[in-house]
Design brief:
Elements (H helix, E strand, L loop, with lengths): L1 H19 L2 H16 L6 H15 L18 H7 L4 H13 L18 H11 L4
Length: about 130
């Protein structure tokens, strides 16, 4: 009686293993193929990572109330900011501080509200994204 129960189970397990066999090799080939076709160029790989993170951080804030990527709203567009400030460590630090502390005068009389709850590193990621908008 016990043999009759285990035989169908054993056959099912063997068939399942056979049906799934070779899957690891296929998955590895698919991953390699995908990596080759979707990997950014070596000089843009860092920008792509920063762009995604900075853009995500900004989406969680109120930035879109006053700024758009290519058109002026209340504050300058990201494109205007990127044209005025070259992407270098000094500008990234300065603009990150401006996001955190707020201010006015660089783009007109309307002040930018401070965002004291944003960490320096997150503000820098946001600035890195802004400076990629062309």
């Amino acid at each position: 009686m016990k043999k009759s129960i285990w035989m169908p189970v054993s056959i099912s397990v063997v068939m399942l293993m056979a049906a799934c066999g070779g899957g690891e090799e296929k998955k590895a080939e698919e991953k390699a193929s995908t990596a080759e076709t979707t990997a950014p160029a070596a000089d843009n790989s860092m920008v792509a990572d920063v762009t995604g993170k900075g853009k995500e951080l900004m989406a969680a804030q109120d930035c879109a109330t006053c700024h758009k990527e290519t058109e002026k709203v209340i504050g300058p567009s990201f494109k205007e900011i990127a044209a005025k400030y070259p992407s270098n460590p000094e500008n990234i630090a300065t603009l990150a501080d401006k996001i955190i502390s707020g201010g006015s005068g660089n783009w007109g009389e309307i002040p930018m509200a401070p965002h004291a709850g944003i960490s320096k590193s997150d503000a820098e990621e946001m600035v890195k994204y802004i400076l990629t908008v062309k």
